[in-house]
Design a protein that fits this description.
- The chain is an alpha+beta fold and 144 residues long.
- It has a single domain, classed as Gcn5-related N-acetyltransferase (GNAT) (Aminopeptidase).
- It contains 5 helices and 7 strands; from the N terminus they run βββααααβββαβ.
- A 7-stranded mixed β-sheet has the order 1-2-3-4-5-6-7, sandwiched between helices.
- The radius of gyration is 15 Å and the shape is globular.
- The relative contact order is 0.19.
Length: 144
């Protein structure tokens, strides 16, 4: 973990992408992506469901304050341009006071980032975090 310009914290880094902590300013892009019918058709059974900025902010409120230790939310940036291209999460589950499992996923919200290897590298970074760093035993996957 290290800081980039503007105080942004990089949590995971590969050859193509950087996964950094979610910031309040990122909600603008998240709102755009989560209200894009084509993107959400791949994710939800109700692609025409719109999400408001208030609901989105409430969903990520704990992460923005650093209060949710059970869920890590990341913004995916293209490393060469530092452009936001998507988001990812790791949600850690506890069973009888033992942390053993996580839900892991990613979404590339910028369609121009599709089919360039960004999703593959992000998946590898996330799974490395789950199994090697967090030492969890199982991961369940979601993706957009």
């Amino acid at each position: 973990m290290w800081k980039l310009g503007h105080g942004l914290i990089v949590l995971l880094s590969g050859m193509l992408v950087i996964l950094r902590a979610l910031e309040r300013e990122d909600l603008i892009a998240l709102h755009k992506w989560q209200n894009d019918e084509e993107i959400m058709r791949l994710a939800r059974s109700f692609p025409d469901h719109m999400i408001s900025k208030d609901v989105l902010e409430a969903e990520f409120a704990k992460e923005l304050k650093g209060e949710d230790t059970g869920r890590r939310a990341y913004i995916i940036e293209e490393k060469s341009t530092r452009k936001q291209i998507g988001w990812a999460t790791i949600r850690i589950h506890q069973f009888q006071r033992r942390v053993t499992t996580a839900d892991v996923g990613l979404a590339l919200g910028e369609k121009t980032a599709w089919n360039k290897g960004y999703g593959t590298e992000t998946a590898k970074l996330l799974l490395n975090e789950v199994f090697r760093q967090l030492k969890l035993h199982q991961a369940e996957w979601w993706t957009y």
